[in-house]
Amino acid sequence: MPEEAPIGHKEILSGLRDMGLKKGDIVLAHSSLSAFGNVEGGPNTVIDALLETVGDDGTLIMPSHTDVEESNIAGYDPQSTPVRKNIGKIPDTFWRRPDVLRGSHPPRHPWAGKGKHAEALIGLSEVLPTYAQHCEDGTLHALPRMGGYVLLLGCMHVSSTSVHSAEVAAVSQVEGVSKRWAEFLDDFNEVDEPLQKTGGMRIGRIGHAVVRLMLSANLFKVVKQLYMDKYRGTDFDMIDYARPPDASPPE
Q: Nearest to residue 159, comparing CAs of 95, 207, 221, 90?
């Protein structure tokens, strides 16, 4: 069989624009490089296309999560600690760029970003305790308020850390209490169907990769509705914000 033609910068850039992304947008991207197929230039080609799409006035954020234990503050070096393998090659390449800001805290779940709002967004995590990263003062709660997007490049919602924060927001808002952890969804991919039905998500394809784009606010709205319709009153893990951290919350 003939070798598959590689997908390049032009095709990825065109695909991102066809999805509706534009200059000035704030985008949190989760990704799988292998899902694209053969990418000419590897992860840097994808990163370059993302940065060109949002432009100088936009912001690109990626997870930069590590294998360091949450309590091991001295075990994390933002200049050298690699990301966990399941986070992917694209984020692990992104944070290593000299013009990309990588958070110094928390040690297990730092963020990396470039653009107009990168420092401010990452800074929200910097001032929170390690155990409270999904509380309503965190980075992922700021995205819906700022009109930011969640972009899934060749991966599903199970890779989207925003769902954790949306669960916390749902319980906190509906019940009128402050939570730092809540996990009620049986499967993060459960949000896919209601996002499609409500028109809250666009689905396209770039190369072999299926791409999902949604406003973070739409994701939070769907998770809140799922809580009210299906999970309210059921038994699930949740931790009050004010409770002393006897252990880190689950992943």
A: 90
Neighbouring CB atoms inside 10 A of 208's CB total: 13
Mode of pairing for the β-strands spanning 209-215 and 201-206: antiparallel
Whose tokens are 């779940």? That residue is 109
Phi and psi torsions of 239, nearest 5°: -135, 130
d(CA 140, CA 121): 8
How far apart (Å, rounded) are the C-alpha atoms in residues 73 and 69? 8
Domain residue spans of the chain? 9-240
- Assigned token pair, 6: 């590689």
pTM: 0.92
- Residue 7: DSSP 8-state: B
- Count of all residues that appear for the chain in the document: 251
- Give the model confidence (pLDDT) of 138-178 as tens digits: 899 999 999 999 999 999 999 999 999 999 999 999 999 88
- d(CA 59, CA 22) in angstroms, rounded, equals 11
